[in-house]
Structures are given as C-alpha cells and as structure tokens.
Amino acid sequence: MYWLNTPLPATIISFGHFQLYWYGFLMALAMAIASFVLWKLNRKTVSGQDLLDLIFNLVITSLVSARLYHVLIHWTDYATNPLSILKVWEGGLAIHGGLIGGLIALYFTCRQKHWSFWQWTARLAPAVALGQAIGRWGNFFNQELFGQPSTNPWAIPIDLVYRPLDQITATHFQPLFLYESLGCLVLAIILYLLNRRNVRPTLIFGSYLSGYGLIRLIMEFFRQDYTWQIANYRWPQILSLGLIFIGFYLIIKKPKINTLAK
Predict the structure, then answer these.
(1) Are 116 and 151 in contact (CB under 8 A)?
(2) For residue 112, how far is the Cα from the chain centroid?
(3) Whether 206 contacts 121, CB under 8 Å
C-alpha cells in the first residue's frame, strides 16, 4: 500500500484540449461493471432489451440527480460560474442524490414493465454497492475524501490547495475513500450471497440501506470537506441515519410486497 503515498496526476492522458480524467474514467468503469454484474445475475429472468432499458434509465437518472444534489449543497462553489456545473469529470457526484434518482427511475421502470419493485431493489443492491466500491477510487485521484493527518504507510498525499487551513503543514492524510471502498466491497459480497439464498427482497434491500448508511455515517465523523450542518451534525450523517432506520425497518418488518409491486 506504500504506492498510495505517491502523488498521482488527476489525468490519464492529455491531447491538446482533450483530457481523460481518472475520476470520470473510474465513474464510467464503476457503472459499466455494476451494469455487467446486474446483467449476469438477471439475464435468465428478463429479456436483454428490458435489462438495457433498466440500465439506461438508472444510469442517466442517477448521474443527473447525483450532480444536482452535489451542486445544491455546494452552491457557493458554482454560483459565480454556473457553466462549471457541467464539468462532471472534475468531481462532484453525491451518492445520496444518485440513490434518490436511481430509486425514482427504478420505480417508474417497474411500473412500466409490471415488475416487482422490491424484487428489483434486491437484485440491484450488490451491483450498486460494487459500483460504489470502484467509484470511490476517483476521489483518490481528485484528492478528495480524506481524514486527519497521518503517517501510516497507506496515507495519501494532499496538495496544499486542498488541505484544511488548520492542517496546512501536513502532507499526508487518512484515505477515507479507501476505507469506504473496502466497506462497500464487503457489503456487495454479503448482498450477493443473500441474493443467491433467495431471501426476502426487503431484507436484502434493507441490508443495503442500513449497511451503507452505517459505513457512510462513520466516514462522515472524519471527513474534512465542507457540507451543510444541522445542530452541529453533517447533513450526510443525518441522511445516513435515515437510511439506517429505513433499512432496519425493512429487515425487521415485512412490508406488503404488493405496495410497490407494479
């Protein structure tokens, strides 16, 4: 893990005005692999065209909602130059916003195709968690999602411009992106095994919500970046608590599957 100590460029290649960013590449890779996993797990139960329709709806809606959510909570960064909102490749996709948009897209797709909404939340859960595990590495190249200064072998370098003012002399910080990525990878494996055992769909989806909510809640205690705060709690912490409670409800209770079935 010592290679994490080495500063790496945010771009993969550059040709004139064209630049291929690691962040954008890893986001695309995460969505591609998640889509492939979803395809492999469900290709025998639905047609290929239906799966393509679902993946297209999920990817487009999730990207737009993730970006809009990020822009909303960081509006001061975009107010003076609104065109920068379009520069998704430079970073700025909020997973909570992506989840909201994805669930909306899934709901309407399920209504259109007469699918069980809860069944598909369960089928999507391991693919989404795996995509999050891969996508978090984009934060490494953009020097985002780091914690307190650290001398650990796996600490990551942060350039002066990105360091908190009260830690300006520190050079290396805890790689929170790595911890969250590993947590999401473990969660994806658990969700995959639950799907293989054909357990109740709401239990699987509830496990995803509570599992990721807990991972994100813990990470938020150590993050250095700015976000909204309510009563000295970071806004993502409040949302993560909501995910945990909803997840536990779905795990413990047994909602009527037909409520959002078609």
Answers:
(1) no
(2) 26
(3) no
Mean predicted lDDT score pLDDT of the chain: 89
Beta bridge mates, 21: 11
Burial bucket for residue 214 (CB in 10 Å: 0-12, 13-18, 19+): middle
| 11 in a structural domain | no
In a domain, 66, yes or no: yes
The answer to whether 168 and 160 have CB atoms below 8 angstroms apart is: yes
pTM over 0.85: yes
**Number of folded domains in the chain?**
1
- Is 210 among the domain residues? yes
Coil, helix or strand at residue 177: helix
**Which residue range is the domain that position 148 belongs to?**
22-260
Query: If you ran DSSP here, which 8-state letter would residue 186 be given?
Result: H
Both tokens of 255, joined, read 């909602």
Distance separating the N- and C-terminal Cα atoms of the chain: 48
pLDDT of residue 259: 45
Confidence of residue 257 (pLDDT cuts 50, 70, 90): low
Specify burial of residue 50 (Cβ count, 10 A radius: 0-12, 13-18, 19+).
Answer: middle
More confident residue, 191 or 7: 191
The answer to whether residue 140 sits within a structural domain is: yes
